[in-house]
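sorry to bug you again but im stuck and you know this stuff better than me. theres a chain ive been looking at and ive put its sequence and its fold in token form underneath. id like you to explain what the token line says about the fold, in plain words if possible. anything you notice is useful, everything is just below.
___
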Amino acid sequence: MTTVIECRRPIVANPALNLKAVAIRTLDGSSKGISQDMITALRGKLRGGVVSPGENGYDAARSIWNAMVDRRPGLVVRCLGAADVIEAVKLAHEEKLLVAVRSGGHNIAGNAVCDGGLMIDLSLMRSVRLDRAAKRAWVEPGATLADVDKETQSFGLVLPTGINSTTGIAGLTLGGGFGWSTRKFGLTIDNLLSADVVTANGELLRTGPAENSDLFWALRGGGGNFGIVTAFEFQLHELGQQVISGLVVHPFADAEAVLEQYRQVLEGAPDELTCWAVMRQAPPLPFLPPEWHGKEVLVLAMCFCGDIDAGEKATAKLRSIGKPIADVVGPHPFTGWQQAFDPLLTPGARNYWKSHDFLELSDATIAILIDAARNLPGPECEIFVAHVGGAAGRVAVDATAFPQRSSHFVVNVHARWREPNMDQACIGWARQLFEAAKPHAAGTAYINFMPEDEVDRVEAAYGGNYRRLAQIKRQYDPQNLFRLNQNVKPL
């Protein structure tokens, strides 16, 4: 059985076009004019559209999740298919233009949008097509995780993705992709069967295990360095529409004891069970007593991707830890659980992240995290500890570009605030915690959590896989056209 969702909207440009050439930033940092004749010719080749500053759709295209990013591209191509992407890339290649690529616009570094350059917007390409019998999905790059979940779960199927449903599938996948079902079914890239990619010279290539396999290897964790993916083919898995999931909220005073027992329970956890720890000020959730609103708490967020009765038993040890303030673990729709953290991650806030991988959650690391959580600079700032392993940890380190396959913890220091006058305090807090924890970290990092100021960390983040990535980059993008990302430079 095949189902399709299509999210197509007509793109209407302002008829009162500026007859002057549009200034576009180039790869070398200079500026050049793109004539209105060239823009008109480009429009005639597209199903989508082209917008420049002042035209309808421009501000919507350049607005992304992280409100700290306020950049103004010189020109935006809003694509409706692979042919549109090819035309945009050909223009960028021939004119040597600075290029940014947007899918979901969720990237913390803000690489989806550039100042002055050409922005290639994929957010209107949101088709999701399923083959239920083969358990496969074909997904366009503008689809969100909610789009994918809605289609797959309608048929009792799942693709392991992330935890915020408004995230774009493209950026999440190219960086690795982990979430509640990763321990059971692997990373998102472990379920990628093939991909269609527009390379830096405007050529559309099919990639897979037996076709352009070196490029396929690089796409699985190497980010947007190697081209623009216009279609993903994924393997899906059976998962009922109800799962055991929910939150157990503890007083922050018990954080040390809770985290020590948390890591012990995870040592013997089945693949179906995922539990993450979050330290933050309690939001005004309806199941929390009002006196706890705004106070520091430690939250255990858990999900069991399997049989409901087995999930009740598997989560029992975690739920028996300490004396929680609230326990709302029980059967929930999986699509609902996938959206549970959306209200805490809405667009419009200023965000800055720092992240480490840890091979173990040592006493020293726990002490550092707790100390930082005592000094949260704002009510939306948080520290979360994700446990990754299971099926994802049974893939060889060099099988994909994604570098960290050991069972490990990913700690994300999430500074989030609203007012620009809080920038220094919030960014400083995240950086201070990052530096304090560095001696205990593995050295690798999840590139989707890396901010734009960590360009010197990319090689270490990929570990032993970096050199091969640089060689493949030289083959497919020798001029580094696709550089607005956690950039791998051509060898």
About this structure: Confidence is low (pLDDT under 50) at residues 1-18. The radius of gyration is 22 Å. DSSP finds 15 helices and 22 strands in the chain.
